[in-house]
């Protein structure tokens, strides 16, 4: 029997979802309105509402959760850009909160079987970037990369490193060019998964 752990901001919706899944032959281990409690290590699929925490915190949480079990996002509307970003971070699917019970069960079973389920068209992901060229980055670029991995904005990075926002933008462009990375989500994912160090703290200036 497929085991599911639900995390959604609405206790009413979570309760209804629990009923649907249980009647569909699935085993709901828990249904909570928070991400602060530890996820069940016995779950085959996590159903998670991205709105429970801020975007930066959720990106970090998602990368950790996907190491334990596939994650199905519970979303209020179909947003292709959001789906693509979360897919890049490791999510395996997204289902609209207004979807039918049959659609929700189909989505859960798809993830449990090793597949994906995206409401609407599946995200069109770029090929996985090659991060082996990280040693081509300068010490200052490594510093900026480390701050990006922690979810800081360009303005926050500028304040922390005592440089201008324009300079941060320049470093980010260089990093993306050297590593062939398209967006910040890819940088964050690489750092969280250990491909790059989130603690990159090189010293010196370019």
Automatic annotation (TrEMBL):
InterPro entries recorded: Sig_transdc_resp-reg_C-effctor, Tscrpt_reg_LuxR_C
Signal peptide: none
GO biological process terms, semicolon-separated: regulation of DNA-templated transcription
GO MF annotations in UniProt: DNA binding
Keyword Transferase attributed: no
Entry keywords, A to Z: DNA-binding, Transcription, Transcription regulation
Name under which the protein is recorded: DNA-binding NarL/FixJ family response regulator
Organism (species): Actinophytocola oryzae
């Amino acid at each position: 029997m497929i085991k599911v752990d639900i995390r959604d901001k609405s206790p009413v919706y979570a309760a209804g979802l629990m009923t649907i899944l249980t009647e569909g032959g699935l085993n709901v281990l828990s249904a909570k309105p928070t991400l602060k409690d530890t996820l069940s290590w016995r779950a085959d699929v996590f159903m998670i509402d991205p709105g429970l925490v801020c975007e930066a915190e959720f990106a970090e949480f998602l990368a950790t959760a996907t190491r334990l079990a596939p994650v199905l996002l519970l979303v209020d509307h179909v947003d292709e850009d959001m789906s693509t970003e979360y897919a890049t971070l490791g999510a395996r699917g997204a289902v609209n909160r207004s979807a039918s019970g049959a659609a929700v069960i189909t989505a859960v079973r798809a993830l449990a079987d090793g597949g994906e389920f995206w409401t609407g068209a599946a995200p069109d992901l770029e090929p996985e970037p090659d991060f082996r060229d990280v040693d081509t980055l300068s010490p200052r670029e490594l510093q900026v990369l480390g701050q990006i991995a922690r979810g800081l904005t360009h303005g926050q990075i500028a304040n922390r490193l005592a440089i201008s926002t324009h300079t941060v933008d320049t470093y980010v462009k260089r990093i993306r060019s050297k590593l062939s990375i398209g967006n910040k989500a890819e940088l964050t994912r690489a750092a969280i998964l250990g491909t790059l160090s989130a603690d990159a703290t090189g010293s010196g200036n370019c």
